[in-house]
Fold each of these.
Amino acid sequence: MASTSTSTKILLLIGQLVLALSYGTFGIILTFLQFIRLGPTKFFRRVERPTPPAQATDPVYGKHEMIKLKVILLFLIL
């Protein structure tokens, strides 16, 4: 079994960094455009969800539990 040369490893690492930076930049730009489109009030609004949606409580995926910690509601699948 032939080992991978150092130059190939460096090129793969550079490729991974370029992809990560590209996708990260793309995500930041889309988030900023969404912020501009909606405005700060709608962008940061809090949505009250006292119960999870029906699809999220499907027993096929496991046992579902909700834990309330002061103002935070955590949804767990065990």
Note: The chain has one helix and two strands.
Amino acid sequence: MSIEIIKEKTTLEALQKKVGGYIEQLLLDDGRMLVFDEDGQLKGKMINNDASVMAGTPIAGPAVILEPQAFLD
């Protein structure tokens, strides 16, 4: 499962649509933000191996990375 990288400002609603639910955010060591569905595992979504490696914990479902300039205000 790939991870989309977002470089431009976006909206909460757009992020929720991309990940398929309410968002959870995790600040990565490199200053970017990993965004994923906070209930992905409960919903039975497939494990996202790429996102899980980045987060150091299992992440289920689609995920996106926000570059610092794209963080929500």
Note: The longest helix spans residues 12-19.
Amino acid sequence: MLAYIYISYGLTRNIYIYILWGLLKGKVYKNTPRTIEQHKDAIRQEIQAVNFGTLGKVFQKLEKRIQVCLDVKGDQFQHRL
């Protein structure tokens, strides 16, 4: 049971991060960071700029993914997004 809870939490957290990164990566790469430090700084800056609107988009995208997954009964659905 504990392993299930850990796996479920890990997967849920990862999907939020995946969706959030999808929203932020364009902003991070907008100024074409050339070094690791520039890249880290750009990521930090964009994460600090996250607001409730951005988080709302994350939840909307997750809700859509869940609904499509349910519609296809767990089959492949990436191509439907």
Note: The helical segments are 2-28, 36-48, 52-71.
Amino acid sequence: MPIVTIEELAPGAEVEVRTHYQANWARGFEIASVDGDRVRLRRWSDNSLLPTPLDRADIRRPTRDESPWMRELHDIASMRIL
């Protein structure tokens, strides 16, 4: 389920990131900014920007088969104070 619309690339949108180590998908990220086909992401756990922009092919909309632990993490991250 690739991201294809401008709305889905809006800053603050929740995404999953493809890991290159095991080629699985990691949760806990949001879009910080978009520059063409490159996307800067923010990690929820520490609110930091990832150092390298990623290609749009390496992000996707989040899946909704979350475990209770992941739902709790998402709820905590959405309450963070900026």
Note: The mean pLDDT is 81.
